[in-house]
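Comment thread on ticket #2218

A.B. wrote:
> Attaching the input chain for the structure job we discussed in standup.
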Amino acid sequence: MPSYNLAIVGMGNVARALLRLLISKETDLRRRYDIRWRLTGIATRRLGWVADPDGLNPLAVLHGHPVTPHGAAAASPPRNVREWLERARADVLFEATSLNVETGQPATDHLKAALECGAHAITANKGPIVHAYHELCALAKEAKKQFLFESTVMDGVPVFSLFPFGLPATDIRGFTGVLNSTTNVVLTEIEKGRSLDEAVKRAQAMGIAETDPTADLDGWDSAVKIVALAIVLMGVDVKLENVQRTGIRELSEEKVRSVRSSGTGVDLRVSPELLLTTDPLANLEGSSSALRFDLDVFGLSFVEHNPGVEATGYGLLADFLRAVQP
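C.D. wrote:
> Ran it. Output below, let me know if you need it in another format.
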């Protein structure tokens, strides 16, 4: 039965959700997929680079207890990501650091290091797709490893995995969607009578909004997502600066109805839109998100109903299974 050493960089809500799923589904992974795993590396700002090829206690990591490598692994901690991956003997890297809109770093360097060290590279971070997609794909091909990123858009919904194998010989002409859970929660709460500040605090209390919600409220999160979709699914080499972006901060609360992110070719736009009540996108509430594709042969829509952070963690877990299964 194959066993895989897993390394996780960034131990925020998403990584913790992944770890909970790995633990809860450990027996299922063995029985259904013949897969065993052990956690051999974690890296955070607080802990630094922690590696032990004999395995770290995942429950201790999950509950914030002290994590100390054993034996030789405890002698001197790794000094950088490459040394950390080598010490952990990582077969798979899960990259779950925060989004850097401007550069995609340090996530991109983490993923490069993983592929160059012979590990599959799986990320929940959209930045590397926008800033280094082709380079990372080339590295993965050269290393004969997988570079996967399903959870970057719509969490665990198999948006990227569906193309091209699930829908061969189709041409994507455009897409429209509600792609930012925080923004949708905020707009829903404003519709219920709350102020913008109250709505943001509500989204933060739900664990959906970050402590600093700027990327969501100003449209950056959706902008990065539609650029990623255009690059990967439409083969369009676009930049973030090509997106016409308008956030929701200046919306009058009386006019709040919905948000739409759309892209056709290289014409990409993120902005609040008033929609007819008959439009399915107008009826999304809470953290729900949706994506509607305009294909050359038919239209196709995905709706994710009120996902939490577990859905993003699931996207990472699903990519793990895709990476290691023949």
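A.B. wrote:
> Thanks. Noting for the ticket: DSSP finds twelve helices and twelve strands in the chain.
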